Every structure is written in C-alpha cells, then in structure tokens.
Automatic annotation (TrEMBL):
GO CC aspect terms: plasma membrane
Domain of life assignment: Bacteria
Gene3D superfamilies, per the entry: 3.30.450.330, DD-peptidase/beta-lactamase superfamily (3.40.710.10), Penicillin-binding protein 2a (Domain 2) (3.90.1310.10)
Molecular function per GO: carboxypeptidase activity; penicillin binding
Organism (species): Sulfurovum lithotrophicum
InterPro entries to which the protein is assigned, alphabetical: Beta-lactam/transpept, Beta-lactam/transpept-like, PBP_dimer, PBP_dimer_sf, PCN-bd_Tpept
Domain Penicillin-binding protein transpeptidase: 273-580
Transmembrane segments: 12-33
Record-annotated Penicillin-binding protein dimerisation domain positions: 49-214
Single Gene Ontology BP annotation: cell wall organization
Keywords, in A-Z order: Carboxypeptidase, Cell cycle, Cell division, Hydrolase, Membrane, Protease, Transmembrane, Transmembrane helix
Location in or out of the cell: Membrane
Name used for this protein in its record: Cell division protein FtsI
Region (Disordered), start-end ranges: 599-675
Length: 675
C-alpha cells in the first residue's frame, strides 16, 4: 500500500515537471516568435520624386511642384514647464497663431492629448527646414522628456517634420490659363500627389509625372538619425520630365493684357487669340480672356476650365469661303478671274430658300467674291464641285478631325454627310460656313496652308521635353501636317486674302511695310434650333515681312454685345491688328520703312474695377517681365459731390435711328435646315 502511494506521488511530480517544462518552452518560443519593439539598427530616409516643371520659351517657370510636410509632436513628450515656450517658438517658425497651436493639444473635453498630435499640414520646404532646425535646438534645450511605451521601453520623442505629399505651384497665377490646365491631388499610400485634369497638365501626364522614388539607407544613431558611412546605400530619385514650351512669356502676357481690354471695350463674352509660325507650327501665343488661378479655382471659374481652343465647336461663317474657293481652284473648275452672275445679291434655291448678299453686285470674279464676302458667289463656286470633291477637300484642310493641338481634349467638329452635300442647298450653306461645326484650332491650322505653300501645319505648344540629365526628347503629334491643296492654289488664295485686307472687310488690319492677309467671318449663334441675334466674329490670316518671318494669326470673338461691334470688321480685325503691333514691338516682325505708331488706346466707356490689366500706350518703352505682372489700373479719385438743382421733367427720348447694316451679311435660316 505504501509502495503504491509512493508510486503515485512520483508519477504526479513527473507529470508536473513535464508540464512545467512544456510551459517554459512554450513561453520561450512565443517570446522568440512574437514581434518586439526593439529599435532597428538601420533607418531609411525616403526621397520621393517630383512632377516635372512647365517652362516658357524664355525660361520662366509656369508650373512646378514642391514637397509638403507635416509637423507632429507626441503630447506626453513635452515638459509641461516648457510647453508655453515651445508653443511660442513653433508659432514664430510656422506662422500659425499661438492660440491655434494650443488648441491642438486639447480634445473636445478639454483634456490633454497624450498621443501623436499633428500641429500643421502642407508646410512648404523652406518652413520645414526651419522647423527641423527648431526641433534640434529644442532637443538640446531639454524641451522633451522620455516616455514609456506599452512594452516598458523608454523613448524620447521630439518634434518630427514628416514629408506627406507634393503640391503644384503656379507662380504666375492666371497666366497662360486655361492652356496650362489644373491638377487634383490623390492619395497614394498616405502620400498626396497631383494628377493633371485639363490642359497641358493632363495631355503630358505620363511624361511629367513622378518616375521613381529615391531613398538613403544606413545605420542609425541613438536619436534615429542615419549615419553616413561606407555601409550606407543611396538610391537617387527620378523626377518627371520638364515641358519646354514654344510660348515666350513676355509675348503671351502682352496678348492677354490687350485682349482683356478689347473684351471690355466691345462687351464680349470671350476672346480667343493665337499666333504661330506658319512653316513650323510653333505656337507663340494662345490666349483667352477667360482665365483663372489653377491653385485657387472658384465657382465663377467653372466655365473657363475647358480650353476652348480645341474643345469649343461652332459655326464659323464666312472664314470658310477661302477654303471653298481653294478646293475649286485645286480641282481647276474656276480661276481667280472667273466671272459669276451674282444676281444683284439675291439667288433663289427652290421655292422657299433665298441666298442673299448685303452688297449688291450684278457680277463678280472669284477673287471679288472673297473680297466682298458674297454668299451668292461662293454658293455657285461650290456647285461646280461634286459633293464628294467638296467634302474630301474640307477634310484635307483638317475639318471633321482633331487638329493635333497638344491640349487635353481635341474635338473633331462636324461636317455634313455626303448624302446632304450632294444637295445644292446644303452644299451652298456649307460653302459659307453654316451647317458645320469647327474649332479655333482647326481653322488656325487650315489657314496656315495659305501661308505655307498648301501645307496645313499642326499647331504645337510644346517644343521638347527634358530630363534631369539634360537629355531632350520630342514627341510627334498624333495628327500630323496635311497637304491641303497644291502650291499654286494656296498661292492664289494667299493673294486673294491680301486683297481682302487692301480693299475688303479686313482693311483695319493693314500695317505699312508688312504683308497682311486674312478673312472675316460673322456668324449667328443657334439656340433651340433657331438662329438668334448673337454672333461669333472671327478673323484668320497671316502677317509676313521681307526677312522671311511668317506668322499665322487667329482671332475669335464670342458674343460681342455692343452695337455693331459683333461685326468681325469692328471686333476681330482690330484685335488682329493689335497683335501685329505687338509682333512688331517685340521684333518678331520687321516692317519695311520701320515701325509706325501703334493704334490709339482701346477705349472703355466706364472705368473698370482693378483686374490687373493695363491700358495700351503709344511711344513708350516696352515693359519688362516684372512690370507686366505689376500693371494695375489706378483708381480715379472720386469727384466731389455738387448740389443738384431741382429736377426738371425730361422730354421723352426719341427712338434711336439705326443705320442699315453695311458689312458682312448674315444669312438668317433655321439651324435645323442647315444640319
């Protein structure tokens, strides 16, 4: 019995010993396998890549990226006796008011935060470096104390400046918008990066976006700073490529300031203007009066976000007439001297439709049909072509296809189907620019053919891209140059457009000593299936000098509302001439006989609010770049009020006598009939 009891006790002790050993081994194994908050012997400093810059032809940065940082502090790590001094210093270095910094330390109930506190976000590089210097000084002064982690390890936290993203800067604000476009930030693994939404920022997104992040890895010291020694590893970052434009900032800004004042003087909704080299397609200016600051977009800017140069399709009117005649000349069905019966300005088509001209002529040559902008004459020229010939000819000029202008969106517009163009009425309407939709960029490209031996060149904003090693890259446009017509036909239209400026609707574009040609167009705007008394006014043409400088210029005025200013000859043509003045002033064109005085300043009925524009002046020194961005209209002093005499009853005003319209004729038909 006693022996049996001893055996049980020994067995129990053995089992207890085995269990104890098992528990011990399990505990050791768990300790080995479980993660521990032991500081790593190595640390990594990330160096994230940046988006490329956009740079003007005269080397001004129009768009650039900067890194942003946030300031983080551990609430329990600040010595309470030194918190007030910390807050004051942080406020001085960051520019954030002291009371706003103090609020960060309290929760909704007024209790102190013990964990991490984000004191500031979106700190720029300069401020971040200053705050890092402050953090180092505060650590030396003992502003921080050690705290225990959950595992009991003593850790000294300080003021951490952490890279948290990238922001896009537009230092010149609204200049070259909406061409530059705008961006939106997206979070990628808690890091914010800009992505292009419109304009050049969108078009070249994959080329200018960040390529490859860099880092520096090495052993760490007791305060977690990386030690630079032979064991360190550095991987350099690869930034996005820079865009180098063909657009000189000085010239672009002069055009913008001028069209701003022109818009105000004729009460237009918007004015678009463009200048490019006729032989290369290099765009020197592409300006709109509807601009915005890409960093600060407001509700009022929404309509301006889309660059209308390649996204706004409209009926162009009479600027299509030279294209129609060029196609006919190319097919040799007419010559510039072919006579046409113009029926004293009235031509019936069928029982219900009449084509009419404002200027009444019994007969005109093909040349004078363009000079006097005869709808009757150009209709008959189009009838000498088949529907197929006419339609194919328009396509060769680049209509109904993207222009190739390097912006985010390039709409193709629309011309009528072959079935419709086989009908005389539809072919006639299209011959003078109705019943079709075109863009500014398409006509800009098409008119270059008349100044470039029949080749319509693709407008190009970007000259080349470059990387951080200085290598240059050029991209071929998706839509290349077009052989619109033969050299002979292009030369004949070139000469006819010169006549338009010499004695037609473009006389206000003349500049002595220069070769100026172009064509006006004034077209009704359709709303709700009917044409209303609102107009698109345009003038497309060229300006050349004897030294070989050749430029294609386009102007589009949208809804000029001042009386009679909707005529292209009263709005688009004077704008064109002022562009020529600027080309001469900045030595892009050299007229024979030298420069002449510029046009008189653009008149405004009432002084406008300060908008950063400058009245044009004559015989003054050309302003520098810095001066162009400091131009502010000085407010006029308010006149002293005088006592008014007792009001007398005013006689009822007589209704104004309106003069008959004597310029370009607008054909009033239903919009539905033309499409």
């Amino acid at each position: 019995m006693v022996l049996h009891q001893r055996k049980n006790k020994i067995s129990f002790l053995f089992i207890l010993l085995v269990a104890t050993m098992a528990i011990f081994l399990f505990s050791v194994l768990k300790t080995i396998l479980s993660p521990r908050d032991i500081p790593s012997q190595y640390t990594i400093v990330h160096d994230r890549s940046l988006r490329g810059d956009i740079i003007s032809a005269d080397n001004y940065t129009l768009s650039r990226s900067q890194k942003t940082y946030q300031a983080v502090i551990h609430g329990a790590s600040i010595d309470p006796a030194k918190r007030k001094a910390f807050v004051r210093l942080f406020s001085i270095y960051s520019g954030i008011p002291e009371e706003d910094v103090l609020k960060k330390f309290k929760d909704k109930n007024g209790k102190d935060f013990r964990g991490n506190i984000v004191l500031a976000k979106d700190i720029n590089f300069k401020s971040a470096m200053q705050l890092k210097e402050l953090a180092y000084k505060l650590r030396k002064l003992g502003a921080f104390k050690t705290t225990k982690t959950s595992s009991g390890i003593e850790v000294l936290y300080g003021l951490d400046i952490v890279e948290n993203g990238e922001t896009r800067e537009f230092p010149l604000k609204d200049v070259l918008s909406p061409v530059l476009g705008y961006v939106r930030n997206r979070n990628e693994e808690r890091y914010s990066r800009p992505h292009g939404i419109k304009g050049l920022e969108r078009k070249y997104e994959k080329h200018i976006t960040s390529k490859k992040n860099g880092y520096f890895k090495g052993e760490r010291d007791v305060v977690a700073s990386v030690i630079h020694n032979k064991n360190s590893i550095e991987m350099p970052r690869v930034d996005g490529m820079d865009l180098h434009l063909n657009v000189p900032l000085a010239f672009q800004r002069r055009i913008e300031l001028m069209i701003d004042r022109m818009k105000a003087s004729i009460d237009a909704d918007e004015i678009l203007a463009g200048v490019m080299e006729s032989s290369t397609g290099k765009v020197l200016a592409l300006a709109s009066t509807e601009r915005y600051d890409p960093r600060h977009i407001h509700n009022k800017d929404i309509s301006a976000l889309d660059p209308k140069f390649s996204e706004y399709a409209y009926e162009a009117g009479s600027v299509i007439k030279p294209l129609t005649l060029a196609i006919a000349l190319n097919h040799k069905v007419v010559t510039p001297d072919t006579w046409f019966n113009t029926y004293n300005g009235k031509l019936k088509i069928g029982k219900r439709r009449t084509i009419s001209d404002d200027e009444k002529f019994d007969a005109l040559t093909a040349t004078d049909i363009i000079v006097h902008s005869s709808n009757v004459g150009i209709s008959q020229i189009s009838w000498r072509l088949t529907g197929q010939q006419f339609r194919d000819g328009l396509i060769k000029f680049g209509l109904s296809k993207p222009s190739g202008l390097d912006l985010s969106r390039d709409v193709p517009g629309r011309i009528k189907s072959l079935h419709l163009l086989n009908n005389n009425m539809h072919r006639a309407n299209s011959s003078y620019g109705y019943g079709m939709l075109v863009t500014f960029a398409q006509l800009f490209k098409a008119y270059s053919a008349f100044n470039n031996n029949g080749v319509a060149v693709t407008p190009r904003l970007v000259d080349y891209l470059s990387d951080d090693k200085g290598n240059r890259y050029t991209l071929e446009p998706k839509e290349g140059d077009l052989k619109a017509v033969e050299k002979k036909a292009a030369g004949q239209i070139h000469d006819i457009l010169l006549e338009v400026v010499k004695r037609g609707t473009g006389v206000k574009a003349q500049y002595p000593g220069l070769e100026i040609g172009g064509k006006t167009g004034t077209a009704h705007i359709a709303k709700g299936g009917r044409y209303v008394r609102e107009y698109h006014s345009s003038f497309y043409g060229f300006a050349n000098d004897k030294e070989g400088h050749k430029y294609t210029i386009g102007v589009l005025v949208i809804r000029a509302k001042k009386y009679h200013k909707y005529f292209a000859s009263q709005s688009a043509v004077p704008t064109f001439r002022r562009i020529v003045d600027i080309l001469v002033e900045l030595d892009y064109l050299k007229p024979e006989g030298g420069k002449i005085d510029t046009l008189s300043p653009i008149k405004l009925d009432k002084p406008k609010e300060d908008n950063g524009t400058m009245p044009e002046r004559t015989n003054v020194k050309n302003p520098s770049i810095n001066e162009l961005f400091e131009m502010k209209s000085k407010p006029k002093p308010k006149p002293k009020r005088k006592k008014r005499p007792a009001a007398k009853p005013k006689p009822k005003p007589k209704p104004p006598v309106r003069k008959p319209l004597t310029k370009e004729k607008i054909e009033e038909l239903s919009a539905e009939d033309l499409f």
